């Protein structure tokens, strides 16, 4: 009995102490919202996650770039293929850009950074400005891509359909913060993007590596936004500022090796902003490289697909003697079909499927500026800029003027930026029809805009679908 | 105590000597009427006196009977007591008849409670350890398939040691877990597939089925509610063997055999493939074949000379199965032990797959004093699985062996592996399997220590402490010489995972019989549990050559990771059992449970249940009907919880996620402070009976289980950065009937035929979803059974042109069905299942045949969508069914014409040629099957013979497992967990020969 009493006592003591916080568990691999958002490192972690999200194959890692090429008149699918992007090439109804969900994921995280960075307890003002500037840039970049996928260009609004995308500018980290927004007007979205970029330019400097957002990157994106919105002088001013920052350096060697050097190093000399990939982050089969070529340009390699190749439409747009055709297109015979494999993403990051994704190159700035000059009838300045691109490509400088010059600049833009995800947006921003090898999509076609995901329409009665998808 | 014992013995000895003076000695032997084996330890007692002896180990007895005695009584646990009138014979041999099991059986339920089966008012299914021993199944969960009403068992794969899915009374949840709770000797053990890299492992394979004494599956609220928030999916209580005092018994058993694939898929030969390809191209282009397609076609060669290589034969084999197990049990009055050791090795029916296990068990019971006893149970096991890439990967042998173009040779002429392939399936599976490593090594220790203290004769305190530790090390090496490995110059991966489960239970148990008629049992207790689950993983790429196969030789680390998660739960519970005069039975349980998984606003819940029983057979008006041995009505009602939700699902947290520029990132989750358990309200009605001395016994039960507060993701506009938030919404219902029947059909001159069968019919219905939605994920539809297939309908082949036709939503024929044309095409859940065992014995020879079946479910044959493309891709082999394809106008068939359509899919003349193999009800097949699961022929040598060589028992047997399957399903195996046949390793069939030897 004595023994028993001792045991009971021990048991009771054990129980009463263990009961107190018996159900308390600590998630060692996570922290609370207060903990995360009150330190500079926590806010920076969120920002890193946005960069990480840009890398995924559903965004800059593959789809955003490849879809732009195959939905438009630039690329097609090989006869023998893995089934990827086949429907995009045929512009099958409802097959379109589909990054709506991941875009708002990135926007929410950027919003959380923007909302909280000022209030963190540590860090210098310069550090906070740097983080805020990056977050504003990233929010602007994602909204810019979104509004161009789901809404008409502000200069080419069809039949008054001026809906852009829902403009959410407050971070959500608790159920009480959830909102059910309507779509903002395209012009309002553009205005917000421009405001974010202007603020970012004032906050940032050029000390960050170019795999992060710099002031030059914000100026360069601001130039692109201005170009899309037909603000010609802004386009010119911002392009000039971005060029002069010298974050990206124009490669002027007019040889195949010279041109290739823009693309066959991990960090491109021309990049103003590029997305870094470590070998451990390889997308392997889901990479851009895997879509454009097989390992070692070998048609018999089992690594990679090599499914997306230039349309004849694009091949015919190259002028004779263009260095870029030789440098960037490798002729191969794939399952009996002669095709060209694109060399802009050839695994220069150190392993198959690893390439830094160049989001803004300095060459684009010259082309932005040339186009804007041309619109302002400053043909001499426009020629100077476009000829910088032409001469490097081994072509004769142009003396064209007026409409012929603008057409030439646009064709030069197509060739220079081919395979880099610009083409769909460059056509749609001009209200152009899309004339492909296999069919033609008129600008009045429903398929010019992407469909808003049905799931979001179902849950949010404020939201409206794009015309023709109902 | 010792003294009094001595006195009794002395008195007894005196009495015996005394009696011998005026009595006569009777001798004889007691055997079981069942199998004729001798019964040791039978109590032989002269009725009306204190005189009694026990039979010796060989069943013999010798008793001095006082003169004037009239009757000898033979009694033994598990057998009907038999009285023999003394007629002056000096030798009386007795055959004892086993009790009808139904009544005498003791059932172990939660927290050390035992109940006589006749007193049970809940719905329990009890399986005897003998029924699952010595089966080539690696784990007991697979062995109980078809053996219990209301319990559906499905193997996830034919890989030896694969996880098994158990669903008790249907599927009760959409997003929370559906697995039952497993209790082994009072310890809550973790179950399921714990692997993170390997295709499938089964945590329960760490327990040797031969160590199991009995399994009690508690299905209704009244039985399971003592486990509160964990009990909604049922509770499986496993009791392992204990030693008995007396002679030490040694048992050795072993079996050897071979396993092979259950069914080979019929595919095209080389010539048939080439013919199909030519036809497909001709049907598209006529004679204007593009050069690139012609080149491709030419590479196939001529149909008349095309070779055929059988890739299925190359990847499937006859695997050797072997098992050895040894146990010893015994002890004395104070200390009892059961120890066992076993070694298993089963080579898979597929190359590269095997399962090797060692298990050790020690069960000890010690009575320290009259009041104080303790017990300890220890189970240590290690099992290694080798495997191959599974699922739908191109490197998956079971998938790709049917799809590789059959003109691809396996070996080159010089004996090296062929690596140059025609078609999309371009991995040499044999090479891959022989070069790559893929393994999971699981180690498991389950230990329990408990002490019991009798405070009063009827009041017992029990304190139990246990640990369940699981550790899994998974390794994968992709050889640089293989397709997957060559891209990165070899890849090595290591994944470590551990689970630590701590359990503390404290219970007070009071039992007393008042005035001989009021029997009362009360238990009250406290329980606490914590599980810690953590792990790490690393992978590296870039190896000098294939001989270097571990991480430190990798040129580049590819990824590293680790994780940690935990949950805690505590509960207090009480239960009262009251029986009046063995006639009226009442039981009530309540448990109050808390779990760290729940939201801060809903941490605790209460789970009550009650049941009543009425043994009608004890009423006077039935007591004179001799053939009614037992007849009982029972009913129960109660509420159970399902707490199988994510450990931190309820909390808003920031978790390390993503990296950029080698900097780590953070990502938020959206928590829900109100998140809590799913709630299952279960009502049960049943009748149990035993007639004609147990020759006709069984039970019929009906249940309705309604799950409310279903965990569903309430949809949010994704513009918030989150698509949904997990909430308690929605309701569903399962209802069904369960039948169990055990009959002894024939007993004639040593021949006995018995039948045991069970049948469950059930249906599920989704009652309500979140946000007023009528459907979820094209799988769940309000008002319909769960897990429905939602596809458009196949209308067969147009006899005029050979094109596949479909119905649109208005029942008109279309060639291009859209999402709007989809209709419900049946559920993946069966509407009925069960099993029937027939047992024939004659003088030690036993033949048993066990049939298991299920019906009413549909299977999505995803592999079929790859194998039945009418040669559209020219890049993969096709099912032999394609041979009956449409070839000329007027052909009436179910297989469309061959049509090559790679390159420019889309619409040609209004027909989308991709649709013949997109998912329509053409590939939703009837999943009903009947399987002759086991056929066993065994022979028990007569004990008389064995005694001469000092052997207690000897049985030899031959057994066939998964012998024949009858089904309409066209894939390799209708046993599919999850309703989709996609890259599943089919089940194996075994033939084994075994021996069981007892000393």
Structure overview:
The complex is a heterodimer of chains A (470) and B (999). With 470 residues, chain A is mainly α. Chain A is 46% helix and 9% strand. Chain A has 19 helices and 11 strands. The N and C termini of chain A lie far apart (81 Å). The mean pLDDT of chain A is 93. In chain B, strand 38 (775-776) and strand 39 form a beta hairpin. Chain B contains 13 helices and 54 strands. The two termini of chain B are 33 Å apart. By secondary structure, chain B is mainly β. Chains A and B meet through helix 1, strand 1, helix 2, helix 3 and helix 6 of A and helix 6, strand 22, strand 25, strand 26 and strand 30 of B.
Portion in helices of chain A = 40-55%
Apparent shape of chain A: globular
Determine the structural class of chain B based on helices, strands and strand pairing: mainly beta
Beta-strand residue fraction of chain B: over 45%
* Number of distinct helices of chain A: 19
Indicate the radius of gyration of chain A in whole angstroms. 25 Å
């Amino acid at each position: 009995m004595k023994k028993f009493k001792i045991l009971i006592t021990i048991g009771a003591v054990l129980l009463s102490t263990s009961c107190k916080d018996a159900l308390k568990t600590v998630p060692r691999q996570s922290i609370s919202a207060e903990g995360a958002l009150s330190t500079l490192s926590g806010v920076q972690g969120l920002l890193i996650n946005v960069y990480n999200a840009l890398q995924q194959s559903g965004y800059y890692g593959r789809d955003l770039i490849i879809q732009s090429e195959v939905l438009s008149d630039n690329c097609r699918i090989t006869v023998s293929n893995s089934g990827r992007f086949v429907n995009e090439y045929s512009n099958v109804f409802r097959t379109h850009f589909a990054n709506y969900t991941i875009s708002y994921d990135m926007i929410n995280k950027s919003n959380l950074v923007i909302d909280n960075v000022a209030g963190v307890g540590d860090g210098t003002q310069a550090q906070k400005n740097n983080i805020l500037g990056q977050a504003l840039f990233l929010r602007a970049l994602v909204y810019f891509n979104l509004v161009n996928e789901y809404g008409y260009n502000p200069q080419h609004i069809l039949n008054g359909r001026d809906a852009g995308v829902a403009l959410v500018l407050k971070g959500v980290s608790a159920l009480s913060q959830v909102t059910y927004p309507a779509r903002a007007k395209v012009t309002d979205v553009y205005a917000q993007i421009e405001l974010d970029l202007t603020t970012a330019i004032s906050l940032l400097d050029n000390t960050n590596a170019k795999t992060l957002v710099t002031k030059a990157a914000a100026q360069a994106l601001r130039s692109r936004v201005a170009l899309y919105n037909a603000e010609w002088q802004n386009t010119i001013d911002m392009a000039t500022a971005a060029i002069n920052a010298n974050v990206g350096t124009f490669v002027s060697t007019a040889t195949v090796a010279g041109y290739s050097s823009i693309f066959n190093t991990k960090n491109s000399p021309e990049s103003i902003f590029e997305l870094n990939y470590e070998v451990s982050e390889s997308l392997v089969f889901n990479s851009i490289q895997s879509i454009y070529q097989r390992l070692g340009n070998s048609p018999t390699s089992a690594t990679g697909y090599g499914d997306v190749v230039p349309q004849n439409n694009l091949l015919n747009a190259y002028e004779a003697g263009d260095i870029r055709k030789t440098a960037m297109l490798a002729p191969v015979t794939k399952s009996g079909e002669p095709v060209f494999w694109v060399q802009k993403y050839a695994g220069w990051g150190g392993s198959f499927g690893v390439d830094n994704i160049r989001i803004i190159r300095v060459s684009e700035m010259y082309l932005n500026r040339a186009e804007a000059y041309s619109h302002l009838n400053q043909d001499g300045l426009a020629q100077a800029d476009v000829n910088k691109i032409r001469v490097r490509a081994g072509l004769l400088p142009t003396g064209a003027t007026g409409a012929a010059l603008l057409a030439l600049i646009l064709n030069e833009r197509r060739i220079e930026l081919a395979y880099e995800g610009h083409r769909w947006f460059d056509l749609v921003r001009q209200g152009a029809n899309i004339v492909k090898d296999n069919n033609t999509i008129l600008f009045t076609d429903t398929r010019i805009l992407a469909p808003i995901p049905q799931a979001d329409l179902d849950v949010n009665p404020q939201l409206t679908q794009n015309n023709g998808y109902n | 105590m010792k003294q009094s014992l001595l006195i009794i013995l002395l008195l007894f000895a005196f009495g015996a000597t005394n009696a011998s003076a005026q009595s006569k000695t009777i001798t004889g032997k007691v055997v079981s009427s069942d199998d004729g084996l001798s019964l040791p330890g039978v109590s032989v007692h002269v009725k009306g006196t204190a005189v009694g002896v026990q039979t010796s180990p060989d069943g013999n007895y010798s008793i001095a009977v006082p003169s004037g005695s009239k009757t000898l009584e033979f009694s033994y646990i598990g057998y009907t007591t038999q009285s023999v009138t003394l007629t002056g014979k000096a030798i009386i041999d007795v055959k004892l008849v086993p009790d009808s099991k139904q009544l005498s059986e003791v059932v172990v339920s939660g927290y050390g409670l035992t109940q006589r089966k006749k007193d049970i008012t809940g719905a329990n299914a009890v399986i005897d350890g003998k029924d699952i021993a010595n089966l080539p199944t690696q784990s007991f969960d697979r062995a109980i398939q078809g053996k219990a009403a209301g319990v559906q068992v499905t193997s996830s794969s034919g890989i030896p040691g694969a996880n098994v899915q158990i669903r008790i009374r249907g599927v009760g949840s959409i997003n929370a877990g559906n697995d039952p709770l497993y209790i082994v000797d009072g310890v809550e053990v973790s179950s399921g597939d714990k692997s993170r890299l390997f295709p499938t492992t089964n945590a329960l394979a760490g327990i040797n089925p031969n160590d199991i004494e009995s399994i009690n599956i508690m299905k209704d609220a009244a039985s399971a509610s003592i486990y509160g928030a964990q009990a909604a999916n049922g509770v499986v209580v496993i009791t392992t063997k204990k030693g008995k005092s007396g002679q030490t018994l040694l048992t050795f058993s072993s079996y050897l055999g071979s396993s092979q694939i259950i069914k080979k898929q019929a595919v095209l030969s080389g010539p048939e493939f080439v013919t199909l390809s030519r036809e497909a191209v001709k049907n598209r282009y006529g004679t204007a074949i593009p050069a690139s397609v012609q080149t491709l076609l030419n590479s196939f060669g001529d149909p008349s000379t095309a070779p055929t290589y059988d890739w299925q034969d190359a990847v499937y084999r006859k695997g050797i199965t072997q098992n050895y197990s040894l146990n010893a049990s015994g002890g004395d009055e104070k200390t009892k032990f059961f120890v066992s050791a076993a070694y298993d090795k089963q080579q898979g029916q597929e190359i590269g797959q095997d399962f090797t296990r060692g298990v050790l068990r020690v069960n000890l019971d010690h009575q320290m004093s009259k009041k104080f006893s303790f017990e300890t149970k220890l189970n240590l096991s290690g099992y290694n699985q080798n495997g191959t890439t599974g699922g739908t990967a191109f490197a998956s042998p079971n998938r790709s062996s049917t799809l590789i173009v059959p003109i691809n040779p396996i070996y080159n002429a010089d004996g090296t592996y062929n690596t140059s392939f025609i078609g999309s399936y371009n991995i040499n599976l044999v090479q891959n399997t022989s070069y790559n490593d893929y393994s999971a090594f699981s180690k498991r220790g389950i230990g329990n220590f408990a002490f019991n203290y009798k405070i009063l004769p009827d009041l017992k305190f029990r304190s139990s402490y246990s640990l369940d530790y699981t550790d899994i090390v998974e390794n994968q090496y992709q050889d640089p010489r293989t397709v997957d490995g060559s891209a990165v110059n070899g890849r090595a991966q290591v994944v470590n995972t551990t689970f630590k489960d701590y359990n503390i239970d404290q219970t007070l148990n009071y039992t007393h019989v008042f005035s001989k008629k009021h029997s009362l049992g009360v238990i009250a207790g406290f329980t606490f549990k914590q599980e810690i689950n953590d792990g790490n993983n690393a992978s590296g790429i870039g190896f000098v050559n294939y001989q270097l196969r571990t991480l430190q030789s990798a040129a580049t680390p590819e990824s590293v990771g680790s994780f940690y998660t935990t949950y805690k739960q505590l509960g207090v519970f009480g239960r009262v059992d009251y029986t009046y005069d063995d006639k009226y039975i009442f039981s009530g349980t309540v448990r109050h449970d808390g779990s760290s998984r729940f939201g801060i606003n809903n941490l605790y819940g209460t789970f009550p249940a009650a049941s009543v029983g009425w043994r009608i057979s004890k009423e006077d008006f039935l007591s004179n009907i001799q053939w009614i041995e037992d007849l009982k009505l029972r009913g129960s009602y109660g509420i159970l919880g399902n707490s199988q939700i994510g450990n931190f699902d309820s909390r808003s947290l920031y978790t390390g996620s993503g990296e950029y520029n080698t900097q780590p990132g953070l990502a938020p989750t959206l928590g829900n402070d109100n998140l809590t358990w799913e709630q299952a309200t279960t009502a049960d009605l049943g009748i149990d009976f035993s007639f004609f001395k147990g020759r006709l016994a069984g039970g019929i039960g009906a249940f309705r289980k309604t799950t409310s507060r279903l965990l569903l993701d309430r949809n949010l506009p994704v513009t918030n950065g989150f698509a949904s938030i997990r909430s308690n919404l929605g309701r569903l219902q399962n209802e069904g009937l369960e039948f169990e029947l055990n009959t002894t059909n024939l007993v004639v001159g040593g021949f006995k035929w018995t039948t045991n069968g069970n049948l469950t019919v059930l249906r599920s219905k989704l009652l309500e979803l979140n946000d007023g939605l009528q459907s979820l994920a094209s799988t769940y539809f309000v008002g319909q059974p769960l897990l429905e297939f939602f596809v458009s309908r196949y209308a067969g082949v147009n006899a005029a042109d050979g094109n596949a036709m479909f119905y649109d939503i208005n029942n008109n024929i279309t060639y291009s069905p859209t999402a709007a044309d989809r209709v419900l095409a049946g559920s993946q859940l069966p509407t009925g299942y069960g099993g029937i065992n027939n047992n024939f014995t004659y003088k030690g020879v036993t033949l048993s045949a066990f049939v298991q079946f299920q019906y009413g479910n549909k299977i999505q044959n995803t592999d079929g969508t790859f194998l039945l493309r009418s040669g559209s891709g020219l890049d993969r082999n096709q099912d032999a069914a394609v041979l009956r394809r449409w070839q000329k106008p007027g052909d009436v068939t179910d297989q469309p014409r061959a049509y090559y359509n790679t390159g420019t899919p889309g619409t040609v003349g209004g027909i989308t040629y991709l649709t013949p193999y997109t998912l329509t009800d053409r590939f939703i097949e009837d999943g009903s099957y009947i399987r002759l699961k086991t056929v066993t022929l065994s022979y028990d040598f007569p004990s008389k013979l064995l005694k001469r060589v000092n052997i207690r028992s000897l049985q030899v047997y031959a057994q066939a497992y998964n012998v024949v399957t009858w089904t309409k399903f066209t894939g390799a195996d209708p046993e599919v967990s999850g309703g989709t046949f996609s890259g599943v390793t089919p089940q194996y069939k075994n033939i084994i020969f075994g021996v069981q030897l007892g000393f």
